[in-house]
Write a structure and sequence with these properties.
Helices cover 29% and strands 39% of the residues. The protein has 171 residues and is of the alpha+beta class. It has a 4-stranded antiparallel sheet with strand order 1-4-3-2. Strand 2 and strand 3 form a beta hairpin. The two termini are 31 Å apart.
Length: 171
Amino acid sequence: KKGQTKSVSRPGTGASVSRSGGQKQRQQLKSLPNRTDEITGIMNEKDPNFTPNDFITYVKRVYVDIQDAWSKRDLEPVRPILHPNLYQQTERQIEKKIQDGIINYLERISVNTAYLTGYVQDDDYEYMIVYLSAQMIDYQVKEKTGQILYGDKTTRWSLSYKMTFMRAADM
């Protein structure tokens, strides 16, 4: 979760976190260059139906869906879009939280910025890298007592992500 790099195909996320207002900064991911126009040109040569707006809308939905699945402690709804390694790693983290009786609530999630920042192709796959900044309320509670163990119900965290989306190169 926070502060960890996660490998994902369809999507991948690596997150760095800072508190809103600059309090308790933690390795804030710097904004990456917006290369949407350049990458759209590359994609349109291969896929004339590609539109950056549709793709970014999809990216935002995927991001929120992953956060919701984490908070609900149920990754099944997002399993088809997570790389198996990320799915297994995150599932173990969720199982540990369940075992410890901890629920991690992620609320009022909003994506502030999202754009294409990178494109790479190898023999088998092509990868689109997206920069995404978001805000959310993030707190953890003891399941049996409701006691807040971490965070609070009002502080909005600002997060920056680099998400990598992957598809077969011959699509």
